[in-house]
Amino acid sequence: MSEDILNKEDLFKMLDSLLREPASFWDGFYKDRTKDIPFFHNVPDENLVSYFEKGLLTPGKVLELGCGPGRNALYLADKGCNVEAADVSEEALEWAKERARKEQKNIHFIHKNIFELDLIYESYDLIYDSGCFHHLAPHRRLTYVDLLNKWLKPGGHFGLVCFSPGGDFGGSELSDWEVYRSRSLMGGMGYTEEKLMKIFNGFTLVEIRKMKVMEENERCFGLPGFQTTLFRKA
Question: Residue ranges of the Methyltransferase domain (predicted)?
């Protein structure tokens, strides 16, 4: 691969190489399914469930970014959505496909980095991200917002679950500049409500709040130290 920097994408790829966890990292992460990791359990995010229960979302065409083993994709399919779900980890997607077959859900899983997806312009009613965004380096937030605008229908929604600063499970409090000085995301960036509002200021806020804590035996996933947001495209 050429190491010339001739355009913005060349620059972003160089920065990616300094900070992004490779696909092999995530394959190793998902390989052992017996690990005691809360989001390995096959239950959807409590905030996602609440959006449907409160009528903020209705069934439509959905893209999930960083779907992991598919717990939210399965819930969305169960609600009658047409679901496409992408992840960089082949191990995670194999697990998700097994779950989908077992539950007889028709979900289109895509094994790609989200920035390499080739999707139809303004084709999604909802784009949902639970745990992908906070693993992106600061420069990729620019591309991320561009993709939301490109793929969401007018009036479509964007739902996000990400680390709060200093949470028990992650949430680096480094400044954006410090990320590059240290060449590390420290396990994932933490976001305040104020910062999320600045990043997604081109969207209309529907709801922003802390994730509700759920017990292990409940039908939803919910842990302390996470922000949940729902935005709407104009």
Answer: 62-156
